[in-house]
Design a protein that fits this description.
With 393 residues, the chain is of the alpha/beta class. It has helices spanning 7-11, 17-25, 44-57, 59-62, 72-86, 101-112, 127-134, 152-161, 183-193, 250-264, 269-281, 284-309, 334-343, 373-392; strands at residues 30-31, 95-98, 118-123, 139-146, 149-150, 164-169, 199-203, 227-232, 244-247, 314-315, 323-327, 346-347, 349-350, 363-367. The termini are far apart. The chain binds pyridoxal-5'-phosphate (PLP).
């Protein structure tokens, strides 16, 4: 049987996920290639308790259909957190619950992008966004991501010469680089966008995971009506619940809601209720502090080992999040490090899929959140042996 799939599928980038799952399924491989939060830090007891309470007190409602926008008390909790943490006057009417922030990428692209439209992002950029946007057949423009944010001259040039529907960025502990935009950079790109019709899509998957426990002011602070923030409970509570949200002007949410309803009617209501019960009976700030303190230690351990064992390799030094990006010594490609690494039981993620327009062959993304300290130590020694032997051959 020959299946005649839509051209948008044929043009979508080949997914790296199959290869990654194969690697993660082998327990003898220490993997820094994935992007999982630490399983050990998920409050399984607390979530189990919240689930029991919901099923004991409210099962009829929790197991019924609900509205597309999501459980209002949960949306109010999220809005209040913006007000308290960041001083942003958010209301529940500006919050839409989604099935993980990955769904926001898909639905946002669906309501904004016609085939051939321009969308822009950082270079390197988040692979999941590249995959989600590609299905709508846009032209994806990129702006180099420097140590303190998108390169301003390139950003301005793009905005002045190209009708970009929206710019997708991750100002806090970016995936894959671990970089964080400076406050000056946030202000400068907001100034540049002001008065244009380009929306800033702020993916804030890691904004709660700063090692110094201090929040950074989002771009939305400078561009309230021209930007949206995609948030998620995946990295701060549990990714399997698949609960995220889009914080956006009401006019955008009206269209978004239509797309969301067509896609899945609403996000899993039972999980929304359990999550809300969990959030209102546990101290989220204390939990997040414990998670970030642990990730900070793991990140420092990985950076120190890289510096000691592989001084010929350069790497970013994240202020938070779950990833760093390493640049290989001249002459080595990330694909050969990946292949030889898997043979030597250590996996890294080649940087190439994060570059829509080619490049990244000399970079690898390393995840420091999911491996134990012992695995990080052993894995870095294995990686050092792989890179030294490839460099010598
Ligand atoms: C930058 C970024 N955005 C979005 C997501 C999707 O996360 P979720 O759908 O679990 O909220 C991820 C997952 O790792 C991510 O790294």
């Amino acid at each position: 049987m020959q299946y005649h799939f839509a051209s948008r599928i044929a043009r979508a980038p080949a997914s790296f996920l199959d290869e990654l799952f194969r690697v993660s399924a082998d327990p003898s491989i220490i993997s820094f290639a994935g992007g999982l939060p630490s399983s050990a830090l998920i409050d399984t007891q607390g979530i189990a308790g919240a689930a029991r309470e919901v099923m004991e007190t409210d099962p009829d409602i929790a197991l019924q259909y609900t509205t597309t926008d999501g459980y209002r008390p949960l949306r109010e909790f999220i809005a209040q957190r913006y007000r308290n943490r960041l001083g942003i006057p958010a209301t529940a009417d500006e919050i839409q619950i989604v099935n993980g922030s990955q769904q926001s990428l898909d639905l946002f692209a669906k309501i904004f992008l016609d085939s051939g439209d321009h969308v822009a992002m950082e270079r390197p950029g988040y692979l999941g966004a590249i995959e989600a946007f590609s299905l709508y057949e846009p032209v994806i423009d990129t702006v180099p991501l420097e140590a303190d944010g998108p390169a301003l001259a390139a950003f301005e040039h793009l905005m002045n010469h190209t009708p970009v529907k929206f710019f997708y960025g991750i100002p806090n502990s970016q995936n894959p680089s671990g970089r964080t935009y400076s406050q000056e950079n946030r202000r400068a790109i907001s100034e540049c966008l002001k008065g244009t019709s380009t929306v800033f899509y702020e993916d804030d998957a890691f904004g709660e995971l700063f090692f110094d426990h201090k929040p950074r002011l989002p771009v939305k602070r400078y561009l309230p009506d021209q930007s949206v923030i995609a948030g998620s409970f995946s990295k701060i509570v549990a990714p399997g619940m698949r609960i995220g949200w889009l914080f956006a002007p009401k006019e955008i949410l009206r269209s978004f809601n239509i797309a969301k309803q067509a896609a899945d009617l609403h996000s899993n209501f039972l999980c929304q209720k359990i999550l809300h019960r969990y959030l209102t009976t546990h101290d989220l700030d204390t939990h997040i502090r414990m998670v970030t303190t642990t990730y900070h230690r793991k990140c420092r351990l990985m950076c120190d080992l890289l510096d000691d064992l592989l001084p010929m390799l350069s790497h970013t030094t994240p202020e938070g999040g779950m990833f760093l990006l390493a640049t290989l010594p001249p002459g080595l490609t990330s694909l050969e490090v990946f292949k030889e690494g898997v043979r030597s039981k250590v996996a890294v993620l080649p940087g190439t899929p994060f570059y829509v327009d080619g490049g990244g062959m000399d970079t690898v993304r390393l995840n420091f959140s999911s491996a134990s300290d012992e695995q990080i130590t052993e894995g870095m020694h294995r990686l050092a042996r792989v890179i030294k032997s490839l460099s010598a051959s």
